[in-house]
Backbone:
């Protein structure tokens, strides 16, 4: 009447599970690498946006913002709205910001992939201070060759 039905054996199911596990093991590290690359691109884009906002603030106010990013969020005319972007490498913390002692230079920086902020500021000559190799930053000062 009816034909024989063939069911999967326990061995066949274990082989399928093993193959799926291997494929997941190959895919996860690649996904994490893509996520890191995405966060780097996001930080670079947001830093360029914040740099434009800081320059606009300077044009309208004659000085760089003393309280970053709140001065940008409350500026008139409106520059970046009421919610400044946050550093993707420091879960919800604002990007770092420093002004030189003479008020001529600034640096805006992200912690970068290692999650530690090693940029410390910017001096009166426009040189970014601290370790700049692993942080992501923008500045109107001198950009070191290693950044």
Residues:
């Amino acid at each position: 009447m009816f034909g024989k039905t063939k069911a999967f054996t326990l061995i066949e199911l274990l082989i399928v599970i093993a193959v799926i596990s291997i494929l997941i093991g190959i895919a996860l590290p690649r996904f994490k690498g893509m996520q890191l690359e995405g966060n780097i691109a996001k930080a670079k884009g947001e830093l360029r946006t914040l740099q434009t906002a800081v320059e606009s603030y300077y044009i309208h106010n004659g000085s760089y913002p003393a309280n970053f990013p709140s001065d940008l969020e409350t500026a008139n005319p409106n520059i970046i709205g009421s919610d400044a972007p946050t550093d993707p490498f420091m879960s919800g913390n604002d990007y770092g910001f420093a002004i030189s002692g003479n008020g001529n230079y600034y640096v805006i920086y992200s912690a970068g992939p290692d999650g530690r902020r090693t940029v410390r500021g910017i001096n009166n000559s426009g040189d970014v201070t601290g370790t700049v190799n692993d942080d992501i930053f923008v500045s109107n000062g001198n950009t070191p060759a290693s950044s």
